[in-house]
Every structure is written in structure tokens, then in C-alpha cells.
């Protein structure tokens, strides 16, 4: 039975990823940061479906909290087969109004979080003969988005991180890949106006936005694809291609 930890695993795409791995019969740990009420509601929802995920609280941008979370994790489980670095935040703001604090916060969660979590599990995965790290980037990390410079840059950095770490860990049988969601039906995109959404959909060859479950299935595929590493799998209906 595979063990899986999903950061930001109680909402949106992370929640869908966690559920898909639960459906595959995996032991799943759901990381969350501040919203304990929502995390407990997600856990209860999964319990009602017959699953028993474990909740672990940690701010992935905080080195001490990440270390503490993985100490707790490895006190329960001997191995971690799959780490999904999904936790992320967004910012819609023109560059003139983007402060250095805004920039640093975006990178702290979106990029530093993936670095800290990956670093925390690398030795264990190597010692156990292999593992899989999946980073959740964004189509904006590939093509960039107006008024989302900080977010786009952080997600682009995550793609470069994926490719470099994949080369570093491949000899140790640890695979590192990336999923790159396009326009997905999540709370993050619910803030877009009707006109903004129509304009985005008009640019998607498949003519619709995606859903979190489609991203989740891509993650499960990457967890099983034994000869795939260093790849960026876009899940966006052809958007940006």
C-alpha cells in the first residue's frame, strides 16, 4: 500500500488529489496550514466515504514546522512513497502595486514550500530505494499571466526546480515530475468575473475549463509512471499551447 502526503490537501485541487489517491487504496496524509475547521470538515467528509486520512498541520514556508511535520509523519509511517507539493497561494496585482513582501510571501509558499518538503523527504526516499515527488505548478508558470507576475514567476521556478531535482535524484530511483493545471474550476478562479472567464475559455481549444479531478488523475498517473521523470504534464485542455 502506497503512502502519500499532499500539502494543501484539504481544499481545491489538493483535496481532489488526496481523494483520488484514497480511491487507489493509498494511506494519505493531508497537510493544512491555518484553516482547521475546513481541514476537519474534509477529514469528516472522507470518513463518510469510508476513508481514514490523517491530518497534519504545518506552514510549508516555515522550515521548523516542516521539520516537525515530517518528524511526526515518520513516527507513524516507515516510508513515504509519494509527496505532492500542492500548497500554493496566488496574487492578482500589477507589478507597480506588488510589494517586496507580496513577492516574498508568494515565493515562500509556492517555491520554498516545495523545496523544504522535498529536502525533508529526500534521504528517506533514497534510503527506501525510491519514491516519487510531484510538484503542482500552473500553466502561468509556462506562459506567464498579466497582473500575476509574482505568481507566474514562482510557478515557473517550480518547473525549473522539478527538472533539476529530477536529474539529481534519478540515480537514486526517486522520480520528480510536475503537473501544470490550466484554468481549473477552483475557489482561486471563482474570483474572476464572467467576462474574464469567457475570455479564458475562448482560448482553450477544448472549449471548457477543467476540474480538480482531472488534475488529480494526472498526479496518480505520474505516481505510477516508473520511467517518467523531469516532465511537466499540462492539464489544461490545450490552453497556452
Textual characterization of the structure:
By secondary structure, the protein is an alpha/beta fold. It has a single domain, classed as 3-Layer(aba) Sandwich (Rossmann fold). The chain is 48% helix and 15% strand. Helix 4 runs parallel beside helix 6.
Helix and strand arrangement:
Elements: E1 3-6, H1 12-23, E2 27-32, H2 36-48, E3 54-57, H3 63-76, E4 82-85, H4 100-127, E5 131-136, H5 139-143, H6 149-169, E6 174-181, H7 194-202, H8 212-224, E7 232-235
Parallel strand pairs: 1-2, 1-4, 2-3, 4-5, 5-6, 6-7
Helix pairs in contact: 1-8, 3-4, 4-6
Report strand %: 5-15%
What is the number of domains? 1
Shape: globular
Largest sheet: 7 strands, parallel
Radius of gyration: 17 Å
Low-confidence stretches: none
Q: At the third CATH level, what is the topology name? A: Rossmann fold
Helix/sheet category: alpha/beta
The percent range for helix content is 40-55%
Key attributes of the depicted protein:
single chain, 241 residues, alpha/beta, Rossmann fold, seven-stranded parallel sheet, 8 helices, 48% helix
